[in-house]
UniProtKB/TrEMBL annotation:
Active-site residues, as the UniProt record annotates them: 56
Family affiliation: Belongs to the peroxiredoxin family. Prx5 subfamily.
Keyword terms of this UniProt record: Antioxidant, Oxidoreductase, Peroxidase, Redox-active center
PROSITE patterns, per the entry: THIOREDOXIN_2 (PS51352)
Function field: Thiol-specific peroxidase that catalyzes the reduction of hydrogen peroxide and organic hydroperoxides to water and alcohols, respectively. Plays a role in cell protection against oxidative stress by detoxifying peroxides.
Domain Thioredoxin: from-to ranges: 2-169
Cellular component aspect of the GO annotation: cytoplasm
Protein name: Glutathione-dependent peroxiredoxin
Catalytic activity, as annotated: a hydroperoxide + 2 glutathione = an alcohol + glutathione disulfide + H2O
Source taxonomy: Bacteria, Pseudomonadati, Pseudomonadota, Betaproteobacteria, Burkholderiales
Amino acid sequence: MIKIGDTLPDVTLMEYQRAGEGGCSTTGPQPVQVRQAAAGKTIALFAVPGAFTPTCSAQHVPGFVEHADQLKAAGVDEIWCVSVNDAFVMGAWAEDQKTAGKLRMLADGDAAFARATGLTLDLNGKGLGLRSNRYSMLVKDGKVVQLNVEAPGKFEVSDAKTLLQQASA
């Protein structure tokens, strides 16, 4: 499992991007090279088991949307939400959660990031397949400086307020 002091894995995530105002035309999924995208930046990264799922949609993402300005004032350059979903689902979820200009909604469609970090959650028996565990991390120049991993079924330490306190320290 990834730990404090480790470098983010060198994998590719996907981000659904729109061209033009109002979503009139789309460019579709665009690759995001994790190490390259994190280089020289402070990233508040949080991962969730799935887009549109109850805790993720009602608490986790809204908390980061609500605290985005405070996180940025504390020195965070970007906020990333990572989920084992495809880029189209993450794009629709971004619209639903009104994350534009606040969060980057990054798709880990084949769970490569989840596997590389060792933070997987096996939900095969529940019809959801291999997912990401719920966690948050503060990353500086590609290195993990804080890591908050939830116990299965919990939402106690990976919230935006906890990461904000850590970023402000």
